[in-house]
Amino acid sequence: MTVLPNLLQENEALKQKLADMAAMLEAANKPKPITMKVGEKGGLSLYGINSRFPVTLYRGQWERILNHAPTIRAFIEANAHLLAVKA
Q1: What span, in angstroms and rounded, lies between the C-alpha atoms of 29 and 6?
Q2: Could you give the CA distance from residue 84 to residue 72 in angstroms, rounded to a whole number?
Q3: What band does 70 get if pLDDT is binned at 50, 70 and 90?
Q4: 68 with 76: CB under 8 angstroms?
Q5: H/E/C letters for each residue in the chain?
Q6: Cα separations (Å) of 2 from 9, 16, 19?
Q7: What b/e sequence results for 55-71 when a residue is b if at least 16 CB atoms lie within 10 Å of its CB, and e otherwise?
Q8: How confident is the model at residue 46 (pLDDT cuts 50, 70, 90)?
Q9: What's the pTM?
């Protein structure tokens, strides 16, 4: 009965491959770290928010947004039932 040992080996190999693929999928779905970079034109680019493209604004725009952070948070909380969540 040489068929059974081969089936057992194949089964173990497939289990390992499945575990490896599950680990790769988990790593791919992990949120990416947020990084920043100053562009050629002096804008601040924030990477890691969108999937591929950065969010780029100038200093004054970032400061205006940051100054309104409490208002933005309150709006998000008040409208949480309407807002979609994307990781």
Answers
A1: 34
A2: 15
A3: very high
A4: no
A5: CCHHHHHHHHHHHHHHHHHHHHHHHHHHHCCCCCEEEECCCCCEEEECCCCCCCEEECHHHHHHHHHCHHHHHHHHHHCCCCCCCCC
A6: 11, 22, 26
A7: ebeeeeebeeeeeeeee
A8: very high
A9: 0.62
Residue 81 in tokens: 């039932």
Specify the length of the chain in residues: 87
CA atoms within 13 A on the CB side of 57: 10
Q: What is the CA radius of gyration of the chain?
A: 23
pLDDT in tens, 54-66: 999 999 999 999 9
User: What are φ and ψ of residue 8, in 5° steps?
Assistant: -65, -40
